[in-house]
Each structure stands twice: as C-alpha cells, then as structure tokens.
Amino acid sequence: MTHPFPDFTAPAGPARIGIGGPVGSGKTALIERLIPALTGRGISLAVITNDLVTDEDAERVRRSGLIDPARVRAVEAGACPHTVIREDPTLNLAAAEDLDAAFPGLDLILLESGGDNLASTFSLDLVDWWMFVIDVGQGDDIPRKRGPGIMQSDLLVINKLDLAPYVHVDAAAILREARAIRAARPVLGCCCRPYGRDGADGTDGIDAIVDLIDREVLFTRAARQDAG
Ligand SMILES: Nc1nc2c(ncn2[C@@H]2O[C@H](COP(=O)(O)OP(=O)(O)OP(=O)(O)O)[C@@H](O)[C@H]2O)c(=O)[nH]1
Ligand SMILES: [Mg+2]
Which pTM value belongs to this model? Predict the structure, then answer.
C-alpha cells in the first residue's frame, strides 16, 4: 500500500492485515494456511475473527492446533459486518490492543471480517493493508462487477482454483481479467484446499501471498519505524 503521506511513520505495535470477502469464499481457510506459512518464517502472529452473532470462526481456528488458542479473539459483528471494520472499528481495535498487551513482540494480527458482499472495505484506522478473497464458484464475472472490495483492496485473492473446471470457469481468464481491471494492484490465485495443490495449475499459491505480506507490510512497516 502506498501511504498518502510520505513522511508517515508507522506506529509501534503489530501490523494489522484485514481479510474481507463474500460469505464462504475461503477467508478462514486462508488464515489456516497463512498461520503455518507465516510462523514458519519466524513471524509472531495473532488472529481476530468477526462473525455476525457467534464465535464460530474463532473456535475453528482455536481448535485447529495451528496456533496458541489464546492468540485468537472473536468479535461479534452484529447484523452489519462491514460496520465494525469500517465505520466504527472500536471493538476490533480493542481486541487488537488486548492481543498486543498479552503477547509482547507480536509482529502481525490477521483480522477476518464477517462474510459480506462485494462492497466491504476496511478502515485504514484498523488495518495497515487488506486483502479481498473471492472464489471461482461465485462466477467468472465477479471481477468485472468491480465492487469496492475488488477495486480498492491491496491484494485480490481468487481462491478455489481447484474448482474452476467443475464450475466451468477458465482460471487463467478470470486471473487475467482481474489483473486488467485492477491495473497495478496485485491479484493472486490460490487453492486453500485441498492441501498440496498450491502452485499447481497456474495458481500462485500461499507462498506468493506470504511473500507479498512480507514485502508490502512487514518490511515496509519496519522500514517506516526505523525511519521514525
Ligand atoms: N475446493 C475448495 N474448497 C475450499 C477452498 N478454500 C475453502 N474451501 C471450502 O469453502 C468453504 C468455506 O470456507 P471458509 O474458509 O469457511 O470461508 P469463509 O470465507 O471464512 O466463510 P465465512 O466466514 O462464513 O464468510 C469450506 O467448506 C472450505 O473447506 C479451496 O481452495 N478449494
Ligand atoms: Mg470465515
């Protein structure tokens, strides 16, 4: 993300990355893949999930065995999932501050939004950088619909490329079209499940997402903090 103020200095504390996208596109599945990939690179991690009226996703991540369950917090978003990530992110900011206080040296918090439509975006008071996850099962015309999530996110992830042949979507074409629509902003294809399909069939895979996070968020933020 290019910050609008060149002399901006990143605040101390962990970086925060938002993960938004329509219901069922694979946001939690992506988190389950990112946790081992990021912690394997020595990054100290925590997770906040937003569900409408339950803590279902937080419980799933806690039970996954991938991360210390104490590092996972749930925010109940209520009826309107984008309100708590955009208009009034107080609950998510409080959860992030709690995690920062509980785990000194925390590098990064992943925040999953409640499943929404193509219109959700994150407040930059809440996150440093955010990605939007769609999947091929929603149709190959989704990038063309140009919702704010597709146009404004720092990274567009097109998930479930393994399903493309079954839903009659040309995976290469949807990636090409999304890249053309987003111009210079990155688009990466992946398969959060089944495991082992990363990088197969032209997908960019989880490692490409982690490389981008490393470069665009963690490295850039550390450089800003050093400069400050
Ligand atoms: N075939 C396939 N299935 C996937 C993939 N990623 C996720 N799924 C499945 O898609 C379904 C939804 O995944 P979730 O990770 O729960 O999606 P989500 O975006 O977190 O859903 P909400 O939080 O309810 O909005 C689950 O049944 C996953 O197993 C993928 O790459 N390929
Ligand atoms: Mg989820």
Answer: 0.92
